[in-house]
Please model this.
Amino acid sequence: MTLASEIRSTLKLAGPVILTQVGFLTMQIVDALIAGKAGARELAGVGAGSAPHFLVFVFGMGLLFSLDAVVSQAYGAGNLKRCREAVIQGLWLALAAGLALTPLQLGLAAAYLPLTGADPEIAAEAGPYLGALSWSILPALGFIALQRYWQARNVVMPMVWVTIAANVVNALAAWALVLGAWGFPRMGAEGAGWATLAARTLMFASLALYTWRAEPEFRREWKERGRAAFAWNPTMIRELFGLGLPAGLHFLFEVGAFAIASTLAARLGTQAMGAHHTVLQVASFTFMFPVGFSAAAAVRVGNALGAGHRDQARRAGWVGIGLATGVMCATAVVLFLAGGQLVGAFSEDPGVRALAGKILVIAAFFQVFDGAQVSGAGALRGWGDTRGPMVANAIGHYPIGLALALGLCFGAGLGLVGLWIGLATGLAAVALGVTWRWSRVTRPGA
Model:
């Protein structure tokens, strides 16, 4: 396959994945917008409850990213039976993770006020919201397991349509339950949690139905072997868990670093926190683009490696990294040129807008490193290496990034600017570590 063909294949795969990721983010934005219509307390409750939910959820999500390597390599080798076995065990792993993480998050919801020391009014909204959101972990993980299965087989459009439908359901349910429209009880922030549960349940049920109808082999095995065809397989579970645990820790380290940064930003005052939250919202949106290329790189690398084409797999990884980094260079230019307009869409406070404008300049540099690190991690995942990105994130974000952020923010008195310089430096260290790891494990003769 030529370089041009590889680029076209990666773009064809990445585009729908990006749309799916944007759809996930849109649900969060819609929840916040509707909660804002209910009142400042409800909006604060949704914002405060989202952070601990995401911190728990990304660990379970990372466990299931092990399917990227197993299914994509099996598909590249033409072993469809192993693909099917992997997704069945992936669903068992999703069930186990959901049953473990749901009570953990319910416990966090019950103890929200004493754990965080949050304002009682905010905690009164955030606790019930987090509690309702807890029940959506299980269907969300089930959806992710099926999503990774189909992506690894280069089938991506069903997830786009499912996500669009889920956004419609989420918006209607949130409007009804948060605001008490159409005769429903007014539940405030908690209603947004139940709306998310409805949307995520629809996503899992729809993709499960599609899988059952699109894969006649599942139906044939059910008729021939019954429940034995879908039984727990300890050997493959161990394989998936062995690959997934480092991936889960990788995401936990990354999200945890930004959660700590948000806690530190809150100590700098209302305007600093507002500016920090605004820039994070912008960065979260642009991050969806390299996430798409990361997924595409994992699939392209795994497919080529499974087919025995090591050189092609290496090139596919570099193409994914190059495309993601290039796109993020473009978003960096947009942030430089249109930062003021972007900030104005989030806040009318002059102090917040001025400070956020300064931080967006740092975030523009941050974009390039973010693109390189997430796409490099995807390429490594397709190769079957999840430990490298985990180590890079642990070292880059904590002894480098957050240590520098603390020193510049509080020691040097640079405030939020210093905090973001530290975060950007940490991401740069992660990007260098991940790309070095990729070049090392894929070099000829390695």
About this structure: The chain has a mean pLDDT of 88.
